[in-house]
Amino acid sequence: MVIASPPTYLKMEIPGQVFSAMGKHALAEKNMPSAPRPVTNTAADKRWRPVEAAMRRNGYRAGGLIEALHAVQRAYGYIDEAAMRAIGAALQLPLSKIYGVVTFYHFFHLKPKGRHTCVVCLGTACYIKGADRLLQTISREQQVSPGETTADGRLSLLTARCVGACGQAPAVVIDDQVVGQAEESAIHRQLAGLNSAGPGSDEEQP
Ligand code: FES
């Protein structure tokens, strides 16, 4: 008797179990599985349930992409390639499109975040007001490259194309609080004052 191998979407891994860097080869649409929907490979992971529920609520239509991505972000804290592939299979969307959406919005993250986040807007309005220099200064002072998290997990330094505060350029978002007309000294003070436990913690600074 010939036993057919399972469809490829059943073999896909889920966030938390695997993280692979998003390289250009990983974006090749030919690698996208053409899976029937709904995706069932993630049924064993309870954290995936709200993601599945979000996609089901939207009839597995492409218009539910943002809601599904928010659900992944809430459940796992970040959105990795495996999650994007699973959503792509369910919503019949190419990985390249999902990757484009995830990287466009600053509130989505491809890697686990630090306890605090500092997002420097590099959109046109902010760039011409010196956002690039500001980013370099923060990177040097905090000893972390853009897109990365400090070795102690305290701070993630991220960039965005626009955070919706163009009139206050250059704009920086620290723990979801927009700092407009950001100056190096003010950002330095604010980052130095962040506690080590994370936003909302009562921990005192030394
Ligand atoms: S370009 Fe920076 S807030 Fe819009």
Describe the structure.
The structure is a single chain. The protein has helices spanning 49-57, 65-76, 81-91, 95-104, 124-127, 131-142, 184-192, and strands spanning 116-121, 155-160, 172-174, 177-179. Strands 2-1-3-4 form a 4-stranded mixed β-sheet, covered by helices on one side. With 206 residues, it is an alpha+beta fold. It is built from 7 helices and 4 strands, in the order ααααβααβββα. It has 2 domains: 8-104, no CATH class; 116-192, Glutaredoxin (3-Layer(aba) Sandwich), CATH 3.40.30.10. A hairpin with a 2-residue loop joins strand 3 (172-174) and strand 4 (177-179). Residues 1-41 have low confidence and may be disordered. The structure holds FE2/S2 (inorganic) cluster. FE2/S2 (inorganic) cluster is lined by residues 121, 123-126, 162-166, 169, 171. The site of FE2/S2 (inorganic) cluster (FES) has 12 residues, from helix 5.
